[in-house]
Design goal:
The chain has 329 residues and is of the alpha+beta class. It is 37% helix and 29% strand. The protein contains 10 helices and 18 strands. The strands form 5 sheets. The chain has a 5-stranded mixed β-sheet, with helices on both faces. The relative contact order is 0.15.
């Protein structure tokens, strides 16, 4: 058994991404825990997600990270511990955890991250701003940039940040992400068709039909529960319904980006306009998102190929490069 191991952890609202340095691998599992009778752990990660929306009344499926921040310390600790065990995290002297954290956390919230990572008192806990990790993965020269905007469109939140010469000068978390889009689709399908669908079905509709650019007319057959009879029923949902549903929240993100650009110093804004806005996160996978952001903001958009893995890939680079360790706290 090794004396020490190191891991990079991105605790997302939807999924936990873990980089194992000794194995040089990244795993991603749902950030969920299933609990039976309020005290018995039934499943964690992807196994818990399989139970989600199918669970009996005595089983609760919980997402312990909400809006990009830890909402339940105990359950987050359980999820992290179980997923680290899947990566063979056993080491005689504990392990080093590099945790990616939002830039605008309070001291109490930072303490929560330290607590969930150091439950056995043998671990070394390091923290890295998610914005910095994203910038590293995106290849941005952090020390030399005179102004760079990064927009991370996550599962339950969107973080808009500006970095300049190695520091995050401003950052804001919006309560808009993939889950809010899913919820909007669930509500719209119920309103239009008297049909109740689950979050999984809404997510599939979002990524298959939510065209933000071209006027493509497609449709998908879905199965839900009739709101009146309570019986299963099929329905055909066209792409324009999904497009109209997600338009307002995505446009709100664009308005916040414009708000940022109007209020930052002119020299920083000029540099951002010159190099474009960097976009990452799982929600940026929505069809034509890059085109839509460009049309709404009037700025060049540079979409990351890493999507939701951008932050953990940045942690991987930071852990393997001593010159980047200066951004580790």
């Amino acid at each position: 058994m090794p004396l020490h191991k190191a891991f990079g952890v991105d605790l997302g609202s939807s999924a936990v991404k873990i980089y194992s340095q000794h194995q040089d691998t990244i795993i991603a599992e749902k950030n969920m825990i299933a609990i039976r009778n309020q005290d018995q752990i039934l499943a964690v990660g992807n196994d818990a997600y399989e139970i989600f929306e199918k669970n009996p009344s005595n089983v609760s499926v919980i997402s312990p990270v909400l809006g990009g921040k830890i909402a339940d310390i105990n359950h987050t600790e359980m999820v992290l511990k179980a997923l680290l065990e899947k990566t063979d995290a056993q080491a005689l002297l504990g392990y080093s955890l590099y945790l990616a954290i939002p830039s605008d956390l309070s001291e109490i919230d930072r303490r929560a991250y330290y607590t969930i990572g150091n439950s056995n008192r043998k671990n070394k806990i390091y923290m890295v701003d998610k914005t910095i990790a994203d910038a590293v993965a995106l290849g941005i020269p952090i020390l030399h940039t005179k102004g760079t905007m990064i927009v991370n469109m996550g599962a339950q939140s969107t973080e808009i940040s500006v970095i300049e010469q190695g520091r995050v000068v401003v950052s804001k978390m919006l309560d808009i992400g993939g889950k809010q889009l899913n919820d909007g689709i669930v509500n719209e399908v119920r309103r239009r068709y008297n049909l109740h669908i689950g979050n999984r079905t809404a997510r599939r509709l979002k990524f298959s039909l939510a065209y933000l650019g071209e006027d493509i007319m497609e449709a998908r057959k879905i199965v839900g529960v009739d709101s009146l009879s309570g019986l299963p029923r099929e329905e055909i949902v066209p792409s324009d319904v999904i497009h109209e549903t997600i338009l307002a929240p995505v446009r709100k993100i664009c308005e916040e980006i414009q708000f940022f650009l109007e209020r930052i110093p002119p020299q920083i804004r000029h540099n951002i306009e010159d190099q474009g806005i960097f976009v990452a996160g799982g929600t940026s996978r929505i069809p034509d998102m890059e085109w839509f952001l460009k049309q709404e903001t009037g700025q060049k958009i540079r979409l990351s190929d890493y999507f939701e893995f951008c932050t953990v890939c940045g942690l991987k680079e930071i852990m393997g490069n001593r010159t980047l360790r200066k951004w580790v706290r």
